[in-house]
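1st attempt posting a full record on here, be nice pls
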Amino acid sequence: MPASKVAVVQTRPETVRADYHRVLNLAGYQDVIAKDADTALKINISWHFFFPACSTTPWQLDGVIHAMLKDGYKKELVHGCHNRTVVIDAHLGERENKQVDVLDAYGLRNVHLYEGEEWLNIRDAVGELTGEFLCLNDVYPDGFAIPKRFIGENVIHLPTVKTHVFTTTTGAMKNAFGGLLNEHRHWTHPVIHETLVDLLMIQQEIHRGVFAVMDGTFAGDGLGPRCMTPYVKNVLLASADQVAIDAVAAKLMGFEPLDDCAYIRLAHEKGLGCGDVNELDIVGDELAARQNWNFSGPFKEMTFASRMQHLIYWGPLKRPLEWSLKTWLAPWSYIASVLYHDAYWYPFKSKRQMKQCLASEWGRLFENWGKVEATEEGFPNPGTEKPEYRRGFWGLLKEAARILVLCIKEAPEFAARRRRAAHR
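the predicted structure (as C-alpha coordinates):
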Protein backbone atom coordinates (compact mmCIF):
# COMPACT_ATOMS: atom_id res chain seq x y z
CA MET A 1 0.00 0.00 0.00
CA PRO A 2 1.52 3.36 -1.02
CA ALA A 3 2.35 5.85 1.72
CA SER A 4 -0.04 8.71 2.32
CA LYS A 5 1.11 11.87 0.60
CA VAL A 6 1.22 15.33 2.14
CA ALA A 7 2.38 18.32 0.10
CA VAL A 8 4.06 21.27 1.83
CA VAL A 9 4.86 24.39 -0.17
CA GLN A 10 6.45 27.71 0.75
CA THR A 11 4.47 30.73 -0.45
CA ARG A 12 4.30 34.51 -0.66
CA PRO A 13 1.56 36.88 -1.86
CA GLU A 14 2.97 37.38 -5.38
CA THR A 15 2.93 33.62 -6.08
CA VAL A 16 0.14 32.39 -3.79
CA ARG A 17 -2.27 31.43 -6.59
CA ALA A 18 0.40 29.40 -8.38
CA ASP A 19 1.48 27.92 -5.06
CA TYR A 20 -2.04 26.75 -4.27
CA HIS A 21 -2.27 25.16 -7.73
CA ARG A 22 1.05 23.46 -7.10
CA VAL A 23 0.26 22.17 -3.60
CA LEU A 24 -3.11 20.78 -4.72
CA ASN A 25 -1.59 18.87 -7.61
CA LEU A 26 1.46 17.68 -5.70
CA ALA A 27 -0.97 16.08 -3.27
CA GLY A 28 -2.96 14.53 -6.13
CA TYR A 29 -6.31 16.19 -5.55
CA GLN A 30 -7.56 15.40 -9.07
CA ASP A 31 -7.28 11.69 -8.25
CA VAL A 32 -9.59 12.17 -5.26
CA ILE A 33 -12.02 14.97 -6.12
CA ALA A 34 -14.24 13.73 -8.95
CA LYS A 35 -15.07 16.31 -11.61
CA ASP A 36 -18.59 15.01 -12.19
CA ALA A 37 -19.76 15.43 -8.59
CA ASP A 38 -20.70 18.48 -6.58
CA THR A 39 -17.81 19.75 -4.45
CA ALA A 40 -18.30 21.51 -1.13
CA LEU A 41 -15.53 23.89 -0.12
CA LYS A 42 -15.92 23.52 3.64
CA ILE A 43 -14.98 26.98 4.90
CA ASN A 44 -13.69 27.34 8.43
CA ILE A 45 -14.93 30.23 10.58
CA SER A 46 -13.56 29.91 14.10
CA TRP A 47 -14.45 33.54 14.86
CA HIS A 48 -16.81 35.90 13.11
CA PHE A 49 -14.28 38.72 13.59
CA PHE A 50 -11.09 38.69 11.55
CA PHE A 51 -8.14 37.42 13.53
CA PRO A 52 -5.03 36.01 11.80
CA ALA A 53 -4.91 32.18 11.68
CA CYS A 54 -8.48 31.82 13.00
CA SER A 55 -10.41 31.24 9.79
CA THR A 56 -10.13 30.38 6.11
CA THR A 57 -8.24 33.22 4.41
CA PRO A 58 -9.57 34.86 1.24
CA TRP A 59 -6.42 33.87 -0.69
CA GLN A 60 -6.88 30.27 0.48
CA LEU A 61 -10.43 30.12 -0.87
CA ASP A 62 -9.42 32.05 -3.99
CA GLY A 63 -6.38 29.85 -4.60
CA VAL A 64 -8.36 26.61 -4.40
CA ILE A 65 -11.16 27.88 -6.66
CA HIS A 66 -8.69 29.36 -9.16
CA ALA A 67 -6.79 26.06 -9.30
CA MET A 68 -9.94 23.97 -9.72
CA LEU A 69 -11.26 26.07 -12.59
CA LYS A 70 -7.84 25.99 -14.23
CA ASP A 71 -7.84 22.19 -13.96
CA GLY A 72 -11.21 21.79 -15.63
CA TYR A 73 -13.66 21.64 -12.73
CA LYS A 74 -17.03 23.17 -13.60
CA LYS A 75 -17.98 26.28 -11.69
CA GLU A 76 -21.58 25.14 -11.31
CA LEU A 77 -20.39 22.02 -9.42
CA VAL A 78 -18.34 23.93 -6.83
CA HIS A 79 -19.83 25.79 -3.88
CA GLY A 80 -18.90 27.38 -0.59
CA CYS A 81 -20.18 25.57 2.49
CA HIS A 82 -20.81 26.93 5.98
CA ASN A 83 -22.09 25.52 9.22
CA ARG A 84 -23.44 27.44 12.20
CA THR A 85 -22.62 27.38 15.88
CA VAL A 86 -24.53 29.10 18.65
CA VAL A 87 -21.60 31.42 19.46
CA ILE A 88 -20.37 32.15 15.91
CA ASP A 89 -22.36 34.17 13.38
CA ALA A 90 -21.44 32.56 10.05
CA HIS A 91 -22.95 35.38 7.98
CA LEU A 92 -20.97 38.01 9.84
CA GLY A 93 -17.88 35.79 9.67
CA GLU A 94 -18.00 35.28 5.92
CA ARG A 95 -18.18 39.05 5.47
CA GLU A 96 -15.56 39.99 8.05
CA ASN A 97 -13.13 37.35 6.73
CA LYS A 98 -13.91 38.33 3.09
CA GLN A 99 -14.83 34.78 2.11
CA VAL A 100 -18.15 35.84 0.61
CA ASP A 101 -16.24 38.38 -1.52
CA VAL A 102 -14.32 35.52 -3.12
CA LEU A 103 -17.40 33.40 -3.78
CA ASP A 104 -19.22 36.38 -5.28
CA ALA A 105 -16.24 37.25 -7.48
CA TYR A 106 -16.31 33.75 -9.00
CA GLY A 107 -20.11 33.57 -9.07
CA LEU A 108 -20.24 30.42 -6.92
CA ARG A 109 -23.11 29.18 -4.82
CA ASN A 110 -22.85 29.73 -1.09
CA VAL A 111 -24.54 27.03 0.98
CA HIS A 112 -25.37 27.54 4.65
CA LEU A 113 -26.19 24.07 5.91
CA TYR A 114 -28.63 25.27 8.57
CA GLU A 115 -30.80 27.24 6.19
CA GLY A 116 -33.28 25.16 4.24
CA GLU A 117 -31.11 22.06 3.88
CA GLU A 118 -32.47 18.58 4.64
CA TRP A 119 -30.75 16.55 7.37
CA LEU A 120 -30.84 12.76 7.76
CA ASN A 121 -30.57 10.63 10.86
CA ILE A 122 -27.12 9.07 10.95
CA ARG A 123 -28.53 5.55 11.12
CA ASP A 124 -30.40 6.08 7.86
CA ALA A 125 -27.33 7.64 6.29
CA VAL A 126 -24.57 5.14 7.14
CA GLY A 127 -26.40 2.10 8.51
CA GLU A 128 -24.17 -0.54 10.10
CA LEU A 129 -21.18 1.83 10.30
CA THR A 130 -22.74 3.26 13.45
CA GLY A 131 -21.79 0.03 15.19
CA GLU A 132 -18.11 1.00 14.84
CA PHE A 133 -18.42 4.40 16.50
CA LEU A 134 -16.14 5.01 19.46
CA CYS A 135 -18.46 7.37 21.31
CA LEU A 136 -21.27 8.96 19.33
CA ASN A 137 -23.82 6.23 20.11
CA ASP A 138 -23.31 6.96 23.81
CA VAL A 139 -23.46 10.72 23.36
CA TYR A 140 -26.57 10.57 21.15
CA PRO A 141 -28.56 7.42 22.03
CA ASP A 142 -31.30 8.44 19.59
CA GLY A 143 -28.83 9.28 16.86
CA PHE A 144 -28.05 12.64 15.28
CA ALA A 145 -28.49 14.23 11.89
CA ILE A 146 -26.09 14.96 9.03
CA PRO A 147 -26.72 17.01 5.85
CA LYS A 148 -28.39 14.93 3.16
CA ARG A 149 -26.56 16.89 0.46
CA PHE A 150 -23.21 15.56 1.71
CA ILE A 151 -24.00 12.03 0.56
CA GLY A 152 -22.14 11.44 -2.71
CA GLU A 153 -20.64 14.92 -2.66
CA ASN A 154 -16.93 15.77 -2.62
CA VAL A 155 -15.64 17.86 0.25
CA ILE A 156 -12.48 19.96 0.40
CA HIS A 157 -11.72 21.19 3.90
CA LEU A 158 -10.14 24.63 4.25
CA PRO A 159 -8.65 24.79 7.77
CA THR A 160 -5.77 26.92 9.01
CA VAL A 161 -2.71 25.92 11.03
CA LYS A 162 -3.47 26.57 14.70
CA THR A 163 -3.64 25.18 18.20
CA HIS A 164 -6.81 24.32 20.13
CA VAL A 165 -7.63 24.34 23.85
CA PHE A 166 -9.48 21.00 23.59
CA THR A 167 -7.37 19.03 21.12
CA THR A 168 -3.88 20.64 21.27
CA THR A 169 -4.03 21.28 17.51
CA THR A 170 -6.91 21.58 15.07
CA GLY A 171 -7.12 21.20 11.33
CA ALA A 172 -8.72 18.97 8.72
CA MET A 173 -10.37 16.45 11.04
CA LYS A 174 -11.85 19.11 13.32
CA ASN A 175 -13.18 21.07 10.34
CA ALA A 176 -15.89 18.43 9.85
CA PHE A 177 -17.23 18.98 13.37
CA GLY A 178 -19.75 21.74 12.69
CA GLY A 179 -20.94 20.36 9.37
CA LEU A 180 -21.69 16.83 10.57
CA LEU A 181 -23.24 17.45 13.98
CA ASN A 182 -26.32 19.61 13.66
CA GLU A 183 -27.25 20.29 17.30
CA HIS A 184 -25.83 19.85 20.80
CA ARG A 185 -22.26 19.58 19.55
CA HIS A 186 -21.00 20.63 22.98
CA TRP A 187 -22.22 17.29 24.32
CA THR A 188 -19.22 15.70 22.62
CA HIS A 189 -16.56 17.92 24.22
CA PRO A 190 -15.70 15.45 27.01
CA VAL A 191 -14.97 12.85 24.28
CA ILE A 192 -13.82 15.24 21.58
CA HIS A 193 -10.91 13.10 20.33
CA GLU A 194 -13.12 10.03 19.87
CA THR A 195 -15.78 12.22 18.25
CA LEU A 196 -13.37 13.42 15.56
CA VAL A 197 -12.48 9.81 14.76
CA ASP A 198 -16.15 8.87 14.42
CA LEU A 199 -16.75 11.86 12.16
CA LEU A 200 -13.85 10.86 9.93
CA MET A 201 -15.38 7.40 9.55
CA ILE A 202 -18.63 9.03 8.51
CA GLN A 203 -16.90 11.24 5.98
CA GLN A 204 -15.10 8.34 4.37
CA GLU A 205 -18.44 6.57 4.06
CA ILE A 206 -20.64 9.34 2.67
CA HIS A 207 -18.40 11.57 0.55
CA ARG A 208 -17.32 10.81 -3.00
CA GLY A 209 -13.92 12.30 -2.18
CA VAL A 210 -12.37 13.95 0.89
CA PHE A 211 -9.44 16.36 0.63
CA ALA A 212 -7.90 19.11 2.74
CA VAL A 213 -5.95 22.27 1.93
CA MET A 214 -4.49 23.99 4.97
CA ASP A 215 -3.34 27.60 5.03
CA GLY A 216 -0.29 28.39 7.13
CA THR A 217 0.44 31.86 5.83
CA PHE A 218 -0.59 32.80 9.37
CA ALA A 219 -0.30 30.17 12.10
CA GLY A 220 -1.76 30.48 15.58
CA ASP A 221 -0.15 29.44 18.85
CA GLY A 222 -1.68 29.44 22.31
CA LEU A 223 -5.34 29.46 23.23
CA GLY A 224 -6.79 28.48 19.89
CA PRO A 225 -8.94 28.52 17.97
CA ARG A 226 -9.51 32.17 18.90
CA CYS A 227 -7.42 33.80 21.63
CA MET A 228 -4.08 33.05 20.00
CA THR A 229 -0.73 34.62 19.23
CA PRO A 230 -0.52 34.54 15.41
CA TYR A 231 2.70 34.39 13.41
CA VAL A 232 3.56 34.72 9.72
CA LYS A 233 4.77 31.28 8.53
CA ASN A 234 4.23 31.29 4.74
CA VAL A 235 3.38 27.61 4.21
CA LEU A 236 0.58 25.71 2.49
CA LEU A 237 -0.32 22.05 3.06
CA ALA A 238 -2.56 19.64 1.15
CA SER A 239 -3.48 15.97 1.39
CA ALA A 240 -6.21 13.44 0.76
CA ASP A 241 -5.34 11.90 4.14
CA GLN A 242 -6.97 13.98 6.87
CA VAL A 243 -4.96 12.28 9.60
CA ALA A 244 -1.68 12.80 7.78
CA ILE A 245 -2.14 16.51 7.05
CA ASP A 246 -3.07 17.16 10.68
CA ALA A 247 0.01 15.20 11.78
CA VAL A 248 2.35 17.22 9.55
CA ALA A 249 0.79 20.49 10.73
CA ALA A 250 1.21 19.39 14.35
CA LYS A 251 4.84 18.49 13.68
CA LEU A 252 5.48 21.91 12.12
CA MET A 253 4.06 23.53 15.25
CA GLY A 254 6.50 21.53 17.36
CA PHE A 255 4.26 18.74 18.67
CA GLU A 256 4.58 14.96 18.43
CA PRO A 257 1.36 13.99 16.65
CA LEU A 258 0.94 10.50 18.07
CA ASP A 259 1.87 11.58 21.60
CA ASP A 260 0.37 15.04 21.91
CA CYS A 261 -2.79 14.73 19.78
CA ALA A 262 -5.03 11.87 20.87
CA TYR A 263 -7.39 12.30 17.91
CA ILE A 264 -4.50 11.72 15.51
CA ARG A 265 -3.32 8.66 17.42
CA LEU A 266 -6.81 7.13 17.63
CA ALA A 267 -7.48 7.67 13.91
CA HIS A 268 -4.04 6.23 13.07
CA GLU A 269 -4.67 3.14 15.20
CA LYS A 270 -8.08 2.63 13.60
CA GLY A 271 -6.53 2.72 10.12
CA LEU A 272 -8.36 5.84 8.98
CA GLY A 273 -5.12 7.54 7.91
CA CYS A 274 -1.48 7.79 8.82
CA GLY A 275 -0.46 9.89 11.81
CA ASP A 276 3.18 8.79 11.84
CA VAL A 277 5.13 11.46 9.99
CA ASN A 278 8.02 9.02 9.48
CA GLU A 279 5.77 6.85 7.31
CA LEU A 280 4.45 9.67 5.12
CA ASP A 281 5.45 10.69 1.62
CA ILE A 282 6.05 14.41 2.19
CA VAL A 283 6.50 16.22 -1.11
CA GLY A 284 7.09 19.81 -2.18
CA ASP A 285 9.53 22.12 -0.45
CA GLU A 286 11.74 20.05 1.82
CA LEU A 287 13.03 22.93 3.92
CA ALA A 288 9.50 24.16 4.59
CA ALA A 289 8.39 20.69 5.65
CA ARG A 290 11.31 20.29 8.07
CA GLN A 291 10.61 23.44 10.07
CA ASN A 292 9.91 23.34 13.81
CA TRP A 293 8.17 26.43 15.11
CA ASN A 294 8.40 25.35 18.75
CA PHE A 295 4.93 26.56 19.63
CA SER A 296 4.08 26.65 23.32
CA GLY A 297 0.66 25.13 22.77
CA PRO A 298 -2.72 25.85 24.35
CA PHE A 299 -2.13 24.71 27.93
CA LYS A 300 0.80 26.84 29.10
CA GLU A 301 -1.08 30.07 29.84
CA MET A 302 -4.80 29.43 29.81
CA THR A 303 -7.46 32.13 29.89
CA PHE A 304 -10.26 32.19 32.44
CA ALA A 305 -12.63 30.85 29.78
CA SER A 306 -10.42 27.93 28.76
CA ARG A 307 -9.68 27.00 32.38
CA MET A 308 -13.39 26.90 33.14
CA GLN A 309 -14.05 24.72 30.09
CA HIS A 310 -11.44 22.21 31.21
CA LEU A 311 -12.80 22.20 34.77
CA ILE A 312 -16.32 21.55 33.48
CA TYR A 313 -15.52 18.88 30.90
CA TRP A 314 -12.62 17.05 32.57
CA GLY A 315 -12.16 18.48 36.08
CA PRO A 316 -13.90 18.89 39.43
CA LEU A 317 -16.76 20.97 37.99
CA LYS A 318 -17.84 18.12 35.71
CA ARG A 319 -20.24 16.58 38.25
CA PRO A 320 -21.94 19.81 39.46
CA LEU A 321 -22.10 21.65 36.10
CA GLU A 322 -21.82 19.42 33.02
CA TRP A 323 -25.36 18.08 33.46
CA SER A 324 -26.72 21.58 32.91
CA LEU A 325 -25.24 21.64 29.40
CA LYS A 326 -27.70 18.92 28.42
CA THR A 327 -30.78 20.79 29.61
CA TRP A 328 -32.59 24.05 28.87
CA LEU A 329 -30.01 25.71 31.15
CA ALA A 330 -27.24 25.19 28.57
CA PRO A 331 -27.45 28.71 27.08
CA TRP A 332 -25.63 30.03 30.16
CA SER A 333 -22.44 28.66 28.57
CA TYR A 334 -23.15 30.33 25.22
CA ILE A 335 -23.75 33.65 26.96
CA ALA A 336 -20.51 33.30 28.94
CA SER A 337 -18.55 32.57 25.76
CA VAL A 338 -19.89 35.59 23.87
CA LEU A 339 -19.34 37.92 26.82
CA TYR A 340 -15.77 36.75 27.31
CA HIS A 341 -14.59 36.49 23.71
CA ASP A 342 -16.60 39.15 21.88
CA ALA A 343 -17.22 41.74 24.59
CA TYR A 344 -13.92 41.41 26.47
CA TRP A 345 -11.06 39.60 24.74
CA TYR A 346 -11.40 40.95 21.21
CA PRO A 347 -11.85 44.63 22.20
CA PHE A 348 -9.13 44.62 24.85
CA LYS A 349 -6.61 41.93 23.85
CA SER A 350 -6.65 41.28 20.11
CA LYS A 351 -5.09 44.53 18.91
CA ARG A 352 -1.75 43.80 20.53
CA GLN A 353 -1.85 40.13 19.53
CA MET A 354 -2.44 40.74 15.83
CA LYS A 355 -0.27 43.84 15.39
CA GLN A 356 2.74 42.09 13.83
CA CYS A 357 0.64 40.04 11.43
CA LEU A 358 -1.40 43.06 10.32
CA ALA A 359 1.84 44.83 9.39
CA SER A 360 2.99 41.93 7.17
CA GLU A 361 2.42 41.57 3.43
CA TRP A 362 -0.42 39.17 4.19
CA GLY A 363 -1.99 41.73 6.49
CA ARG A 364 -1.84 44.32 3.73
CA LEU A 365 -3.27 41.85 1.23
CA PHE A 366 -6.19 41.17 3.55
CA GLU A 367 -6.77 44.88 4.08
CA ASN A 368 -6.70 45.60 0.35
CA TRP A 369 -8.47 42.44 -0.82
CA GLY A 370 -10.57 43.14 -3.88
CA LYS A 371 -8.69 46.36 -4.64
CA VAL A 372 -5.32 45.00 -5.78
CA GLU A 373 -4.42 43.41 -9.10
CA ALA A 374 -4.55 39.63 -9.31
CA THR A 375 -2.47 37.71 -11.85
CA GLU A 376 -2.32 34.01 -12.68
CA GLU A 377 0.57 33.76 -10.22
CA GLY A 378 -0.82 35.74 -7.33
CA PHE A 379 -0.90 39.28 -6.00
CA PRO A 380 2.33 41.08 -6.94
CA ASN A 381 1.41 44.20 -4.99
CA PRO A 382 -0.55 43.58 -1.77
CA GLY A 383 -1.21 47.29 -1.48
CA THR A 384 0.42 50.14 0.34
CA GLU A 385 -2.45 50.90 2.67
CA LYS A 386 -1.34 49.66 6.06
CA PRO A 387 -4.10 47.78 7.86
CA GLU A 388 -5.25 49.40 11.04
CA TYR A 389 -7.26 48.15 13.95
CA ARG A 390 -10.35 50.22 13.27
CA ARG A 391 -12.86 48.62 15.58
CA GLY A 392 -13.99 50.85 18.42
CA PHE A 393 -15.06 49.45 21.76
CA TRP A 394 -18.67 50.59 21.51
CA GLY A 395 -19.04 49.17 18.01
CA LEU A 396 -17.71 45.81 19.19
CA LEU A 397 -19.93 45.90 22.25
CA LYS A 398 -22.97 46.54 20.07
CA GLU A 399 -21.99 43.63 17.79
CA ALA A 400 -21.44 41.39 20.81
CA ALA A 401 -24.90 42.30 22.11
CA ARG A 402 -26.46 41.40 18.74
CA ILE A 403 -24.63 38.06 18.68
CA LEU A 404 -25.68 37.42 22.27
CA VAL A 405 -29.34 37.83 21.30
CA LEU A 406 -28.80 35.65 18.23
CA CYS A 407 -27.08 32.84 20.17
CA ILE A 408 -29.93 32.73 22.71
CA LYS A 409 -32.55 32.77 19.95
CA GLU A 410 -30.78 30.05 17.97
CA ALA A 411 -29.82 27.90 20.96
CA PRO A 412 -30.78 24.30 20.10
CA GLU A 413 -32.44 23.89 23.50
CA PHE A 414 -34.90 26.69 22.72
CA ALA A 415 -35.22 25.72 19.05
CA ALA A 416 -36.25 22.20 20.08
CA ARG A 417 -38.93 23.59 22.37
CA ARG A 418 -40.25 25.79 19.54
CA ARG A 419 -40.41 22.77 17.22
CA ARG A 420 -42.30 20.73 19.81
CA ALA A 421 -44.75 23.59 20.36
CA ALA A 422 -45.31 23.95 16.62
CA HIS A 423 -46.25 20.27 16.27
CA ARG A 424 -48.79 20.23 19.08
